């Protein structure tokens, strides 16, 4: 309520104009000096991408974020808006959000001459100062830059009148951040229009130039293959970006687990050891020669997989009346067939897709088993099967039924401690731990396993 409503009040308040890049620099420095996170929600880039990004922003550079799909490029781009001032003034009613102290469009300059210090203001929240466009082949110059508005011409204005222009997304983001996804997908003539914005900071519409010194930070994303090898971006435009920053997939399993935990919308409980299985499975896919690594394996793969595992647990709870919906090892293979669309296989793997994924998933479970339970005495579990006993489980076997087949198992409490549950573990969590141990013992060739009609029998 105390914000000025006119240019005169704004001047009296001591307000000083500054560019978007200067505003971002000041706010970023403030966060860095206070030891705060400048990019909340970004996982796994602290030592690699973010230092480069911070330096580029402090230098006032327009940016290119290069990386394969699902590496968080768009997420990084969207967090930049948090570095803007929470509120900023603009000339009320201006289509391009003119600075009240230094208007650039013909309408605002005319009103400034007529009204002087009584020129009315509006205040814009930083969330309104970010625009984003997905580049597609049908994107036009009018979409990004602007075009002549026939309605305004019909009202009597001449074609040479700047007020006949209907501004596109870029001018409408003036004094803000404009994000463009997949830059190489833009037609070359559209890239030329962007080149003019970056080089001259003006726009050209229908054969005449409007001298509008736009004030914005331009951030674009691209796939490295499209950006560097196929020649789908004009070289002069590449040269005008001040910084080119490469993103990457999470380098550590812990970062992958943290990302999945942060981003997943789970409908049932998924123990952390199963999230780690999914994370290791995703990493194995990224390293596999059977997968086309040029298209990458998106972080959305592991997120969707974890959400599918939770859904499988919820389905079991609904079908069997199990009071708890807690995911178990048997839920992971059930979601693999639903994820094929997120992967691109190499040509020589046609017909072997399911076999490849099953093998990599078994490796992920075995690696997680060794990582979590290495050094533990699991003889209490193997002794259950020494006399030819069997334990039957599966995606429709309730937790209580699974545990009743085993009875008391020596060493179970230590397993629960290792998996982060402790003495207060619920029935569903205990069943998840037991099934994980059984699967791990099978994969390390210590017990047998047979699967028939969706049911798995360990031992025998």
Provide structural commentary.
By secondary structure, the protein is of the alpha/beta class. It folds into two domains: 7-246, Rossmann fold (3-Layer(aba) Sandwich), CATH 3.40.50; 253-459, no CATH class. It is 43% helix and 13% strand. It contains 20 helices and 14 strands. The chain has helices at 7-12, 20-34, 49-59, 73-79, 106-115, 141-144, 150-154, 169-172, 188-200, 224-228, 235-240, 253-263, 272-287, 299-320, 331-335, 353-373, 379-382, 399-406, 412-418, 427-443, and strands at residues 63-66, 87-91, 121-125, 130-134, 146-148, 165-167, 176-181, 203-205, 208-210, 216-222, 243-246, 390-394, 449-452, 455-459. The strands form five sheets. Strands 4-7-10-1-11 form a five-stranded parallel beta sheet. Strand 13 (449-452) and strand 14 (455-459) form a beta hairpin. Helix 2 packs across helix 3 and helix 16 crosses helix 20 (427-443). The longest helix has 22 residues, at 299-320. The chain is elongated, with a radius of gyration of 29 Å. The chain starts with 6 loop residues before the first helix and ends with a strand. The mean pLDDT is 88.
The total of beta strands comes to 14
Structural class assignment: alpha/beta
Helix content: 40-55%
Return the CATH class of the largest domain.
Alpha Beta
How many domains? The number is 2
Global outline: elongated
CATH superfamily membership of the largest domain: P-loop containing nucleotide triphosphate hydrolases
Enumerate the spans where pLDDT stays under 50 for 5 or more consecutive residues. none
Mean pLDDT, rounded to whole units?
88
Strand order of the largest sheet: 4-7-10-1-11
Roughly how many Å apart are the termini?
76 Å
The DSSP helix count reads 20
Largest pleated sheet: 5 strands, parallel
């Amino acid at each position: 309520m105390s914000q000025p409503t006119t240019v005169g009040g704004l001047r009296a308040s001591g307000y000083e104009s500054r560019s978007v890049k200067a505003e971002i620099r000041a706010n970023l420095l403030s966060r860095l000096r206070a030891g705060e996170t400048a990019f909340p929600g970004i996982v796994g880039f602290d030592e690699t991408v973010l230092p480069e990004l911070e330096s580029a922003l402090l230098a006032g550079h327009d940016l290119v974020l290069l990386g394969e799909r699902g590496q968080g490029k768009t997420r990084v781009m969207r967090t930049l808006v948090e570095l803007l001032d929470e509120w900023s003034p603009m000339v009320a009613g201006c289509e391009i959000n003119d600075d009240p102290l230094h208007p650039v469009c013909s309408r605002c300059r005319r009103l400034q001459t007529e009204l002087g210090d009584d020129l009315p203001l509006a205040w814009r929240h930083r969330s309104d100062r970010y625009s984003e466009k997905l580049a597609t082949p049908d994107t036009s110059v009018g979409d990004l830059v602007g075009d002549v508005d026939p309605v305004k011409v019909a009202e009597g204005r001449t074609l040479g009148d700047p007020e006949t222009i209907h501004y596109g997304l870029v001018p409408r983001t003036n004094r803000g951040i404009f994000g463009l996804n997949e830059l190489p997908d833009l037609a070359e003539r559209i890239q030329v229009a962007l080149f003019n914005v970056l080089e001259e900071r003006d726009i050209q519409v229908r054969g005449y130039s409007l001298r509008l010194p736009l004030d914005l930070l331009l951030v674009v994303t691209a796939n490295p293959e499209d950006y560097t090898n196929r020649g789908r971006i004009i070289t002069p435009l590449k040269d005008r970006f001040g910084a080119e920053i490469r993103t990457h997939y999470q380098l550590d399993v812990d970062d992958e687990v943290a990302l999945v935990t942060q981003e997943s919308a789970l409908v049932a409980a998924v123990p952390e050891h199963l999230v780690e299985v999914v994370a290791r499975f995703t990493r194995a896919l990224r390293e596999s020669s059977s997968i086309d690594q040029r298209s990458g394996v998106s972080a959305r793969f592991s997120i969707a997989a974890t959400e599918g595992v939770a859904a499988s647990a919820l389905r079991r709870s609904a079908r069997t009346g199990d009071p708890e919906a807690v995911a178990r090892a048997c839920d992971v293979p059930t979601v693999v067939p639903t994820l094929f669309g997120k992967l691109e296989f190499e040509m020589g793997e046609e017909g072997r897709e399911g076999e490849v994924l099953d093998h990599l998933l078994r490796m992920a479970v075995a690696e997680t088993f060794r990582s979590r339970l290495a050094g533990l005495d699991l003889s209490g579990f193997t002794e259950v099967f020494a006399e030819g006993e069997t334990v039957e489980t599966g995606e429709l076997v309730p937790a209580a039924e699974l545990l009743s087949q085993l009875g008391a198992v020596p060493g179970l409490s230590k397993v629960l401690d290792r998996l982060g549950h402790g003495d207060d573990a619920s029935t569903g969590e205990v069943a998840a731990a037991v099934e994980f141990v059984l699967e791990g013992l099978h994969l390390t060739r210590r017990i047998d396993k047979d699967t028939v009609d969706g049911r798995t029998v360990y031992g025998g």
